[in-house]
């Protein structure tokens, strides 16, 4: 063993020997030295199963055992994004800590109250918690925070890359700031992350005031051999006894995945249910044991645990058909193959998913990518003709092979989460002055881009008598209003993201899982859920229960969901694919045929020479050649001028009416840089949980800071008009 091993506490050394480890991984040895020799914050970056958890906790636990702390409270704090991940990591750490006689306390909604009560009475060891449960501690135990965390040496943030620029990530950063203010000292921050395109932004997230001092420990090489294939399928080609694209993909998955452990990422939950149903049916038809199971957030915890246990058991072949629920670091063991149906929305997600495969020494990582495109007819749209889903898949695979992935976006205003944190700080303190709240959240905390003027506008909006979230006492102290008290007292307050009401699905008295309220269901309707087919019998609105029974047919329920933003670089690579002539070796015959069709139609539309192409008297296609944020900005600007606009990857389909001005003239006006009322033709500005309490002007500011890029509009239009003029 290395010198790094010698620095660890004896119980930790004993545990390592019990695991049969001959050597520490390089990333673990470097982390041990850094944690022992410095007080620096650090990011430990490696692929899934790269040893990040041990790299952080082996030295931290050793320090707890060898060096007495001067205060009371939990010794270490672990923050994870998922309850399942916390449960998994608690079991993982328990093995180390049993030897060290150090308590491991998982804390989330599914943990019993008795465990929580004991931990609150005598806080010590390692607390593993979600951001939402930590928020609840601040609100319910605000005056005890210093006692609970007075001894805390370090906070470990798992899956750091998933929270960098999200509302939840801003909430977490705010909580960390408030924690340090409560105990009156900084706490070492350690982020565990997949490797990102720009780690400097991750450093800035972890310690905004001292990003340059954050140490980065990144795993070296060690990547498994990658085997991949992109297969193409045509939908709408079911004549002459051809199977549907769905059936053909299911048959291919069945043939190649049976007998091993695999993950199939099918995208939306309804697609998960469709493919799980098809694969279950194939098992039954062949009189073979069931190996294919759905896994998504609406299914019961019991069902998801069952699937995860099967994946961990090497003796039982299991394929999980899933959404992104199995993308994060839940320990499910090694899988043989990762399949992706449809184009992913980010290279980072594709990379994270692929990290589940090829983890055993000598075993390759296998990626099967399936692209489904419509059979072309004379009436086919330009989107179908350009095969944009296939082109995005190629672009992302190419960028994956080059080692690139999306960097986190610069931080926006996040006004919805600001409202949430204002209420939380007031609740924690039992009242606070506007100055104190501003200092905690904006000067010290993550809302640095919120000026005192915008902050004051936010206070006025949530303090308006019709809103009633806050009120001001005669002394000037901010207090919760009646509406604010009701909000904060409800368990749903702790999460900053939308949590719609869900209906429980019940069959013969047994819970199957939940369906979001945005589904329109009625008795007699058929659906597929949990890989089975059901008919709706009863709907109980008050109890939020849907009673179902097995059926012979069904359709997947429609779940809500946000598609996600496509990065500029992905779009740029998509155009390079369309304008190129190479035929990637990983593509099958059908996908290559589709690629040639796409390139031929691209040439017919003459986008090499002109970024604007008329496809009818009133319709034009604009090649923006940029990602979602900038393309959305131009779309809003055009809608404000009366155009009907349809948005696609790097393209806009624009229709003008009889009274709509000339498209090129409008674009020329945008080029001048004169202010454009982007929201004149916009619909709903409410996209986050606390947006309904804000004024329109604040909603516009928030949207401009996060979803749009108004400053980029003139240059974008210049680029569009440059060709063909």
Short description:
It is built from 26 helices and 24 strands. It has 725 residues and is of the alpha/beta class. The protein has a seven-stranded parallel beta sheet with strand order 3-4-2-5-6-1-7, sandwiched between helices.
Poorly predicted runs are: 553-563
Number of helices: 26
Shape: globular
Helix coverage percent of residues?
Answer: 40-55%
> What is the count of distinct domains?
5
Summarize model confidence as the mean pLDDT.
87
Number of strands: 24
CATH superfamily of the largest domain: P-loop containing nucleotide triphosphate hydrolases
Oligomeric state of shown chains: single chain
In the CATH hierarchy, the architecture of the largest domain is 3-Layer(aba) Sandwich
Radius of gyration (CA) equals 27 Å
Lateral arrangement of strands in the main beta sheet: 3-4-2-5-6-1-7
| CATH-derived topology of the largest domain | Rossmann fold
Strand residue content:
15-25%
CATH class descriptor of the largest domain: Alpha Beta
Structural class label: alpha/beta
Q: Report on the biggest sheet.
A: 7 strands, parallel
The CA-CA distance between the termini, in Å, is: 68 Å
Please name the defining characteristics of this protein.
single chain, 725 residues, alpha/beta, Rossmann fold, 6-stranded parallel beta sheet
């Amino acid at each position: 063993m290395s010198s790094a091993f010698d620095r660890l506490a004896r119980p930790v050394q004993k545990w390592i020997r019990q695991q049969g480890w001959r050597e520490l991984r390089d990333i673990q040895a470097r982390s041990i030295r850094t944690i022992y020799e410095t007080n620096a914050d650090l990011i430990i970056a490696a692929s899934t199963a790269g040893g990040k958890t041990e790299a952080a906790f082996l030295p931290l636990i050793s320090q707890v055992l060898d060096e007495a702390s001067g205060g009371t409270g939990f010794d270490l704090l672990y923050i994870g994004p998922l309850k399942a991940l916390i449960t998994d990591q608690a079991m993982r750490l328990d093995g180390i800590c049993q030897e060290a006689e150090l308590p491991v306390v998982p804390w989330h909604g599914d943990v019993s109250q008795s465990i929580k009560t004991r931990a609150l009475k005598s806080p010590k060891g390692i607390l593993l918690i979600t951001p939402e449960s930590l928020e609840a501690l601040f609100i319910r135990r605000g005056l005890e925070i210093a006692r609970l965390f007075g001894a805390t040496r370090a906070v470990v943030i798992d899956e750091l890359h998933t929270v960098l620029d999200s509302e939840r990530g801003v909430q977490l950063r705010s909580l960390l700031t408030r924690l340090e203010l409560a105990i009156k000292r900084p706490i070492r921050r350690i982020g565990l992350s997949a490797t990102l395109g720009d780690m400097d932004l991750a450093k800035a997230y972890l310690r905004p005031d001292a990003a340059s001092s954050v140490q980065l420990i990144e795993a070296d090489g060690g990547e498994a051999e990658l085997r991949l294939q992109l297969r193409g399928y045509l939908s709408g080609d079911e004549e002459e006894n051809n199977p549907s694209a769905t059936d053909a993909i299911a048959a291919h998955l069945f043939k190649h995945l049976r007998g091993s452990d695999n993950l199939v990422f099918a995208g939306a939950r309804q697609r998960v249910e469709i493919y799980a149903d098809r694969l279950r049916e194939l098992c039954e038809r062949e009189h073979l044991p069931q190996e294919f199971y759905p896994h998504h957030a609406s299914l019961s915890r019991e069902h998801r645990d069952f699937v995860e246990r099967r994946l961990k058991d090497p003796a039982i072949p299991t394929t999980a058909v899933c959404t992104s629920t199995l993308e994060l670091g839940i320990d499910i063991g090694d899988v043989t193959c990762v399949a992706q149906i449809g184009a992913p929305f980010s290279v980072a997600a594709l990379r994270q998913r692929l990290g589940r495969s090829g983890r055993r020494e000598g075993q390759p990582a296998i990626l099967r990518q399936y692209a489904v495109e419509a059979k072309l007819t004379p009436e086919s749209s330009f989107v179908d003709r350009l095969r944009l889903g296939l082109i995005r898949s190629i672009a992302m695979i190419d960028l994956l092979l080059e080692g690139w992935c999306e960097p986190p976006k610069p931080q926006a205003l996040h006004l919805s989460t600001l409202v949430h944190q204002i209420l939380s700080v007031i609740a924690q303190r039992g009242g606070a002055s506007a100055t104190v709240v501003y200092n905690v959240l904006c000067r010290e905390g993550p809302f640095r881009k919120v000026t005192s003027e915008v902050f004051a506008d936010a206070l006025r909006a949530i303090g308006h008598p019709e809103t009633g979230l806050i009120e001001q006492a005669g002394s000037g102290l901010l207090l919760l209003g009646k509406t604010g008290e009701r909000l904060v007292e409800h368990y749903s307050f702790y999460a900053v993201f939308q949590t719609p009401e869900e209906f429980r699905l019940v069959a013969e008295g047994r819970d199957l899982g939940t369906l979001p309220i945005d589904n329109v269901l009625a008795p007699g309707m058929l659906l597929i859920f949990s890989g089975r087919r059901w008919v709706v019998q009863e709907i109980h609105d008050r109890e939020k229960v849907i009673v179902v029974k097995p059926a012979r047919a069904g359709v997947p329920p429609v779940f809500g969901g946000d598609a996600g933003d496509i990065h500029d670089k992905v779009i740029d690579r998509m155009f390079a694919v369309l304008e190129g002539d190479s035929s990637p070796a990983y593509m099958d015959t059908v996908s290559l045929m589709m690629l040639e069709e796409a390139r031929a139609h691209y040439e017919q539309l003459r986008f090499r020479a002109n970024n604007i192409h008329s496809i009818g008297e009133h319709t034009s296609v604009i090649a923006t050649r940029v990602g979602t944020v900038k393309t959305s900005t131009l779309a809003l600007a055009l809608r404000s001028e009366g155009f009907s606009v349809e948005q696609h990857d790097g393209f806009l389909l624009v229709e003008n009416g009889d009274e709509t001005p000339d498209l090129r003239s409008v674009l020329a006006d945008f080029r001048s840089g004169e202010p454009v009322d982007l929201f004149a033709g916009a619909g709903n500005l409410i996209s986050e949980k606390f947006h309904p309490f804000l004024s329109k002007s604040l909603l516009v500011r928030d949207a401009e800071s996060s979803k749009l890029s108004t400053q980029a509009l003139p240059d974008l239009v210049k680029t569009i008009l440059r060709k063909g003029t």
